[in-house]
Amino acid sequence: MAKRTRAEMMDGTRRKLLASARAAFVEKGFHKTSMDDLTSAVDLTRGALYHNFGDKKGLFAAVVDQIDAEMASRARGLAEGEGTVWRALLAEGCAYIEMALDPEVQRIVLRDGPAVLGDPAHWPSQNCCLDATREAVTQLLANGVLRPVDIEAASRLLNGAALNAALWVASCDNPEAMLLKAQEAFRMLAEGLLAPDSEATNDGAKG
Questions:
Q1: Taking the complete model, does pTM exceed 0.70, yes or no?
Q2: What homologous superfamily is domain 1-54 in, according to CATH?
Q3: Less Cβ crowding at N or C end of the chain, within 10 Å?
Q4: For the chain, what are the domain ranges?
Q5: So what's the pLDDT on residue 206?
Q6: DSSP states along 158-182
Q7: What is the pLDDT of residues 48-63, one digit of tens each?
Q8: How far apart are CA 113 and CA 115, in angstroms?
């Protein structure tokens, strides 16, 4: 068997810590998870955690970034078959909101995330989501699907609406009951950007 390089060993250590952290944080939450919970399950030392992530908060931030990026990827995947940029934009936003029902997403990203890391609008993973929304809005505006609107403003408001709807669903006593209401409100808010004579499902909005 070929000897692993130092880079491969470091990558393996990071992957182990991330997997261990995801399991611990979803089970116990950030504040009740100890350093030993994060390291002993994968036979690593605290030194390995400090070296790779700085501290528990740094590891938590990496976990949130990983899960949030997975959420965005899953939402894009679910929207790919929609046929038009407009339909894909709505489907992606609604899919993101629905992921608030996922126990891992709900506890780690949407409940503990803002409490530990602050405003989600400043998370690196959210910037990636914003980039994708900005690209869609730019194309829709160029195709005459949207009213004349500032691209940056519209993109940030759409992205923020989906995120805040997910945060709301995650914090409800009955998330399942609130999901459809949140998705409906998101669609209605987004539809307010449509040009009066736009047929958003027609060829003018195709990707």
A1: yes
A2: Homeodomain-like (1.10.10.60)
A3: N
A4: 1-54, 63-194
A5: 46
A6: HHHHHHHHHHHHHHSSSHHHHHHHH
A7: 999 999 999 999 999 9
A8: 5
Token pair 């959420």: residue: 71
Q: Which H or E run contains 85?
A: helix 85-98
Calpha distance 108→138 (Å, rounded): 32
Tens digits of residue pLDDT in 16-47: 999 999 999 999 999 999 999 999 889 998 99
pLDDT at 199: 65
Q: Which two tokens stand for residue 66?
A: 């990983």
Residue with tokens 């261990």: 20
Dihedral sign computed on CA atoms, order 195, 199, 204, 207: positive
Q: Tokens 């959210």 sit at which residue?
A: 126
- Report residue 144: phi and psi, to 5°: 75, 15
Give domain 63-194's CATH architecture.
Orthogonal Bundle (1.10)
Element of type H or E holding 20? helix 6-28
